[in-house]
Amino acid sequence: MALDEHIDIFPWYDSFNIGIPEIDEQHKQLVSILNRVASFISFQNSTLNLDDLILELVDYAVYHFNTEDNYWLSTISESEPTDKHHNSHLDFIQRVHDFEQKTSILTEEEWLDELLSFLAGWLASHILESDKYMALLAKAVQSGMSLDEAKHSAEKQMRENGRNAINIILAAYKSLSSNAIRLMREIKAKNQALDMHLESERQLQAVMDYAQIGHWSLRYADQSAEWSPQIYRLFGIAENTTPELESFFCIMSQDSQKNFLDSVQHSFETGEEHRMVYQIERVNDGAKRWIECRGKVVYGEDGIPEKISGFLQDVTDRKQDEEQITQLAYYDPLTQLPNRRLLLDRLNQTIAMTQRSQTYNVLLCMDIDDFKTWNDSHGHEYGDILLQEISTRIQSCLYQGDTVSRVGGDEFVIILSNFSGNSIEVAAKAESVANRVALSISEPYFIRECQCNISASIGMVLFNDNRTSAHELMKQADIAMYQAKEGGKNTVRFYDPLMQQEIKVRMKLENELRIAIEEQQFTLFYQPQVDQSGRIFGAEALIRWNHPLDGLVCPDRFIPIAEETGLIIPMGDWVLDTACQQLNLWQQDENRRDLTLSVNVSYVQFRQPSFVDKVCELMQKYQLEHGKLKLELTESLFVDDIELVISRMTTLNNLGIEFSIDDFGTGYSSLQYIKRLPLSQLKIDRAFVSALDTNMNDQSIVNMIILMAKELGMSVIAEGVENQSQREHLEKFGCLNYQGYFFSKPIPIEEFISLSAPNF
């Protein structure tokens, strides 16, 4: 595997420019040399010499230092700052020479990593702190200030430019140096291991003894062919037939022709063995035979492939024996479905894979109700036909990757694989499949003018780990199936009775949710958003379900169901319309016309083709002012088709709609995309706010989010603020907008109006 042997351990950004072209260009050259040193250390490029690279870096650094010193002396004159800066140059040279003394103490890899970490950290500090300060000092002196005034001005500008941000950047570059080198070395080690493995494969192929059945070869340059006399008899072609590729193809199907060419081309490109088994139709008697074809690439002295050469063997008898053995061993002869042996094999595979895939699987045990009565009254021949038709109907209800097996008599077992979601969601999906199977089986059968009406009882068990054996799962599904029979037949039961009850509750909630949408049983609550002075400047609109019997239902109970069933779309449309209507009312209220309103938009809703048009219509319908409506999007929206997302956001942003990333830092974050999005705000997730008092990691993350938001020209707001200490930490870091129970819980509009009164 080829790897680009280059690494930028110190990426250059325009923000590193200090404003003195000559010095900036020399900085870029120093960075370039440093990156070459990093590439050598990462890839051990034999065409380079590390001593020469380091000597080149030191020599150019000395040349650069002389340029700097001359420039500072010509603009500032000799003084305490110029002496200090000059001494830092001398210190750098001394530190590099000191590293030569560590070669007897450290291993070569430790020595190289420590050297590179020092060089990257020193150069970042040299540019961002020392040289930027000197440039500001020189500019101030040139403007007519005294040296003391110039020092005060330069120090002030350095503080205002954010020394904390500089320290964070320096720490980031130090971490980047070690992490990048470690990563590149890991990749190189893996590539070396892969090369060794491929070399082992090539050596193995070189000593293989091919069966002398029929020899063939195909030249790389012109695809001319050669073969031994046995080939004519294998293919049933005349002995005067010219050996060529078309002679091969005349006995192959079109699919086999394509597969043959692809395999040969792959061998020429990679050196891997050509091997395939395909069916031919012989020319002389039309007999269909199975051929195994093998070949390996022969190279010339220049390393270019000359030909691929190998042997052909008629494996028809072996192929038929293998298929018959497999069929008898693993398939039911009546229905051609997998038998118990193959079912258990697939079930064990599913159990083993479950632990890695982190998904749910479902085992269904199904028994045909009153099959024995039909079989005894009409005879086994009729019973066999019925079982065959039942197996066909079951298969039509399943998805690719699912397994249905006949394990004996009138008993079938089904494996449903790879369900995502929690256990209740998966159980609901599995029950839907089971009901579909039961409904299909209950449709009338017509067997030789006899009508048959039967049903099935189905038991199910869920599993998502490897703690339960295949035997135990079969036992549990069988128990559930007998519970279904005792419950009146033609029913579906889960092994876990509690799960069965939870599914009923969930299905009841889904049905009630559909009624709630039709009858508009929803209302909006508003959670105030305040600034550092406690002034309410806006709110977030949060949906609540006013259930006619249960009262207010928490969104955590119905939003997941709405997203899974697609009900989130009409629900989201209602939320947007109601929020825009409220904004229109605030615009007419002199005391609240400046309030903004944030609305959450789900992934499913935003991806609807009509979403942009709907929002545009609402903006026109309610004559909303620019900047008052803010849509909050989660990071999951940016996982795929980012160009579509950017296009839609840009269109809406041009209409005056603001955008905020909700729960920032908890999902899919990519600065590459964030800087392209028309965002005005980042919202710090409550998960980082809750432990600000005690968790240093959360403090660092929050600080970084705030600094990044400022750098990108965005505002920042923290949600989930619940006490004064959290608020003070956020204010200290520079976050001046808040939302949370410390200020107010989500409240009805009447209470919000009262809370946002001017005298509040």
Account of the protein in words:
The protein has 26 helices and 21 strands. By secondary structure, it is of the alpha/beta class. The chain folds into four domains: 14-195, Hemerythrin-like (Four Helix Bundle (Hemerythrin (Met), subunit A), Up-down Bundle), CATH 1.20.120.50; 214-322, PAS domain (Beta-Lactamase, 2-Layer Sandwich), CATH 3.30.450; 331-495, Reverse transcriptase/Diguanylate cyclase domain (Alpha-Beta Plaits, 2-Layer Sandwich); 513-755, EAL domain (TIM Barrel). The chain has an eight-stranded mixed β-barrel with strand order 13-14-16-17-18-19-20-21. A five-stranded antiparallel β-sheet has the order 2-1-5-4-3, sandwiched between helices. The radius of gyration is 37 Å and the shape is flat. It starts with 20 loop residues before the first helix and ends in a 5-residue tail after the last helix. Residues 203-212 have low confidence and may be disordered. Belongs to the hemerythrin family. It catalyses: 3',3'-c-di-GMP + H2O = 5'-phosphoguanylyl(3'->5')guanosine + H(+). Keywords: c-di-GMP, Iron, Metal-binding. This is cyclic-guanylate-specific phosphodiesterase. It holds the Pfam family Hemerythrin.
